[in-house]
Amino acid sequence: MNATWVGLSLAILITVSFSARAKQEVTLNSQFKTAYFSYQGAVKNNDADSQFKYATEAYQLGSKFYGTANINTANLALILARLHLDKNQKEQATSLLLNTLNAFKVEYGDSAIDLAEIYILLGLSLNYDQRKKSINYHLKALSIAEEHAAEHAAEHPFINAQIQLEAGIALLRLGSSKSNAILTAQEFFKDKLSSNDKRVIESNFYAGKYYLTRRKYSKSVDYFESNLPVFKALEGATHPLELNTHAFLINALEKSGKSDEATNHCIAIGSMTPWDDSQEPIPLFRVEPIYPVDYARRGKSGYVIIGFTISDFGTVLDTKVLESIGGKQFERTALAALNNWRYAPKFEDGKPVEKYATVQLDFKIRK
Predict the structure, then answer these.
(1) What are the DSSP E strand ranges found in the chain?
(2) Where in the chain are the domains?
(3) Contacts of 300 (CB under 8 A, 6+ apart)
(4) Any idea what the Cα angle at residue 102 is, between residues 99 and 105, rounded to 5°?
(5) DSSP per residue, 142-204
(6) Among the listed residues 337, 334, 311, the one whose alpha carbon sits nearest the alpha carbon of residue 321
(7) Is 49 exposed, middle or buried (0-12, 13-18, 19+ CB in 10 A)?
């Protein structure tokens, strides 16, 4: 074949190849944009199922269009990882987050503030049997926030405090002493923001939980109660943290020996939550029955079913053993414990009323 013709043929093939590739990229880009805009629409409409569907499509198409190591793909992976965590699909989230972390390090550096959220999400993506690794991820996020605050004090100070709060909350669940980062965030938000700002409310709440876990009940009560005026001022729907605030206040006050003060919060919860007669009421505060030492030595097990009245104050009245197996000592310790329990009273026509209930307390030797 003539060399001139060979060259011409190759030129035509290459031109056709480039043309096909360009057309393919245009199509892929169009598909990606459609998926991503659909995801944004689902976020706007608060449609969780559609968010997950279109975020998955956007990530898959973005990976092909941008490449797996591209920062745009990493941001898409970060979106999808959050949604996997919402579905408690932790392994899928972990895989996406690790890839995202590597891409962010290349793009922004090992200590960039942008990495802090990824470390927090990585910590949340691990099960409790990986507690130590999870704690280390959260501590890494705190370290980044601390370094960022030291070097860039005037830049994004609220981001630093938000990282401290989110990492501190996770560390509190993991039982780490480093959860005192919550207190640092709370002081900052309280100093810079109004009392009804959601960051102040959230940090007050978790500061209360922090001190409750450390049995510093007076401090715990102070932080929980600091949110009550904000809740009281709300019109219409209650605040998402209001119910839990009253519940934790009941625990803190009961453990402080202030049962009378806890009553107001039992009544508050009762007024907020409808009573379901088909379900056994759940105690807001309970004392575990003491296992009789003599029975424990002999390996005795049993149970006690007790009928009782939940008063209009949420206290336990008129306890009576309905059925039991194992011996009288089980009955005595079960009754003694139940008399200290607190419930939310039932409300009828806007007023708290008494309600009969039953409960079974089981005594089993753990092997």
Answers:
(1) 302-310, 316-325, 346-348, 351-353, 355-363
(2) 293-363
(3) 292, 326, 327, 363, 365
(4) 150
(5) HHHHHHHHHH-TTS-HHHHHHHHHHHHHHHHHTT-GGGGHHHHHHHHHHHHS-TTSHHHHHHH
(6) 334
(7) exposed
Cα maximum dimension of the chain? 109
Please state, in angstroms and rounded to a whole number, the distance separating the CA atoms of residues 76 and 80.
Answer: 6
The answer to whether the beta carbons of residues 144 and 104 sit under 8 Å apart is no
What lies within 8 Å, CB to CB, of 286 at 6+ separation is 337, 340, 341, 342
Q: Identify which of 267, 316, 310, 308 has the alpha carbon closest to the alpha carbon of residue 287.
A: 316
Using an 8 Å Cβ cutoff, are 186 and 203 in contact? Answer: yes
Which contiguous run of DSSP H or E holds residue 27? Answer: helix 3-44
CATH topology of domain 293-363: 3.30.1150
Strands ordered across the beta sheet of 355-363:
316-325, 302-310, 355-363
DSSP state of 128: G
Angle at alpha carbon of residue 317, lines to 316 and 322, rounded to 5°: 100
DSSP label at residue 237: S
Q: Among residues 222, 181, 182, which one has the least CA distance to residue 202?
A: 182
pLDDT (0 to 100) of residue 154: 61
In the block, tokens 């030595």 appear at 297
For residue 129, give Cα distances in angstroms to 119, 126, 133, 142: 18, 8, 9, 22
The pLDDT mean for the chain works out to 91
Interacting residues of 2 by C-beta distance below 8 A, sequence separation 6+: none
Q: Which two tokens stand for residue 161?
A: 């405090």
Q: Which amino acid is at 233?
A: A
Contacts of 181 (CB under 8 A, 6+ apart): 142, 164, 165, 167, 168, 171
Amino acid at 125: S
Read off the DSSP letter of residue 276. -
Give the span between the Cα atoms of 354 and 308, in whole angstroms: 10
Radius of gyration over every alpha carbon of the chain, rounded to an integer in angstroms: 29
Closest CA to 84 of 96, 74, 72: 96
| pTM for the predicted model, two decimal places | 0.85
- Cβ count within 10 A of residue 104: 21
CA dihedral over 265, 269, 271, 276, signed as positive or negative: negative
* Report for 151-155, 312-316, 347-351: range of highest mean pLDDT: 312-316
Question: Could you give the 3-state DSSP secondary structure of residue 21?
Answer: helix
pLDDT at 141 over 50: yes
